[in-house]
Amino acid sequence: MANSLPRTLPASWYCSKPLYSLEQRAVFLKSWYLLGPVTKFKENEPVVYEYAGVTLTATRATPDDSSIAVVDDKGNRPKTHLTPTGLLFSTISEAAPSFHDFFPGLEDVLSTVDFRVRPYRRSISYHGDFNWKTMVDGYQECLHCAYTHPSFSVLYPPTSYAVINHHNWCRHIADPEKPDDGVFLYLFPIGTLNVYGGGISQFRVCPTEEPGGTRMEFDYYNVEEGEKFEEYYKFVRQVAIEDYGLCEKAQSNLERGIYAEGILNPVKETGVAYYQQRVLEMVLSQHHEDKQNKKNLQHRPADGASTDATASSQSELDSSSYSGNFNFTTRAGAGIAVST
Ligand SMILES: [Fe+2]
């Protein structure tokens, strides 16, 4: 029985700098990111984002939503996608597939909400002493809700909470009796989008060079302003602060080395199992690709005819190399010894 239960990623995956380097190429460069509803972008007021070391700047030129342009720090225009009801997404590299290949079916759910009518109100950003996956682990289940979020649990009883997994996105159903009561989404790898009442909240768990650190970024939108908005803001910030404390404690336990990996609840933690599996698949695939590239370079005939492309590939490989201080021997028999 225990063998068939989903297992967590090893603790080393939350603490390793070399793994972050691998995740950067395996996961982050190949993903799509929600920049926000179009109401966030005011004319000629650039909005700056940073994802895994790549800076994006989004600027609206005219009142027409299609005039919002995104450029990266090298001046390139990444692939972007504007949904029919007003959400702007972007990539950070050419390695990402098309929007619909990355998020199949997502636009159908997004089309049930008009994101153009909820004004942008406020953003907040701060550092967190935890790995990006520590926060996503918590977002993807609600087993902790009853004792961590007493005020949230009154509105949304955790006993009926469910997560439905799709490809690279998950829908959270807080109360199956009220399927139309809001849209709560996890957008792989580091995004969320929560719509309820007249409000929208969105957060990004931005990874940093230090695996035990993140930059948390929140954006809030609401049809209400003044006191009514402040009431909403107080409620959502309370939930965010409660999660923050939980993540810092979880990270310090992961870093102590007494925990290796564990079993996930097969009913209540399917969202955690799903996204961790995606990370595992993408990282292993990148690892195989790196190994193959290294082998190909080693077997190249030493004829002195090394081209710029060869030199460039070698240099890329060298700069992205990692040492084996994290553990690939994990669930699903994926035991791969990393040697350098
Ligand atoms: Fe939580």
Automatic annotation (TrEMBL):
<comment type="similarity">
    <text>Belongs to the choline monooxygenase family.</text>
</comment>
<dbReference type="InterPro" id="IPR036922">
    <property type="entry name" value="Rieske_2Fe-2S_sf"/>
</dbReference>
<feature type="compositionally biased region" description="Low complexity">
    <location>
        <begin position="303"/>
        <end position="320"/>
    </location>
</feature>
<feature type="domain" description="Aromatic-ring-hydroxylating dioxygenase alpha subunit C-terminal">
    <location>
        <begin position="183"/>
        <end position="283"/>
    </location>
</feature>
<dbReference type="GO" id="GO:0051537">
    <property type="term" value="F:2 iron, 2 sulfur cluster binding"/>
</dbReference>
<feature type="domain" description="Aromatic-ring-hydroxylating dioxygenase alpha subunit C-terminal">
    <location>
        <begin position="121"/>
        <end position="159"/>
    </location>
</feature>
<comment type="pathway">
    <text>Amine and polyamine biosynthesis; betaine biosynthesis via choline pathway; betaine aldehyde from choline (monooxygenase route): step 1/1.</text>
</comment>
<dbReference type="GO" id="GO:0005506">
    <property type="term" value="F:iron ion binding"/>
</dbReference>
<dbReference type="GO" id="GO:0019285">
    <property type="term" value="P:glycine betaine biosynthetic process from choline"/>
</dbReference>
<protein>
    <recommendedName>
        <fullName>Choline monooxygenase, chloroplastic</fullName>
        <ecNumber>1.14.15.7</ecNumber>
    </recommendedName>
</protein>
<feature type="region of interest" description="Disordered">
    <location>
        <begin position="290"/>
        <end position="320"/>
    </location>
</feature>
<dbReference type="InterPro" id="IPR001663">
    <property type="entry name" value="Rng_hydr_dOase-A"/>
</dbReference>
<dbReference type="Pfam" id="PF00848">
    <property type="entry name" value="Ring_hydroxyl_A"/>
</dbReference>
<dbReference type="InterPro" id="IPR015879">
    <property type="entry name" value="Ring_hydroxy_dOase_asu_C_dom"/>
</dbReference>
<comment type="function">
    <text>Catalyzes the first step of the osmoprotectant glycine betaine synthesis.</text>
</comment>
<dbReference type="GO" id="GO:0019133">
    <property type="term" value="F:choline monooxygenase activity"/>
</dbReference>
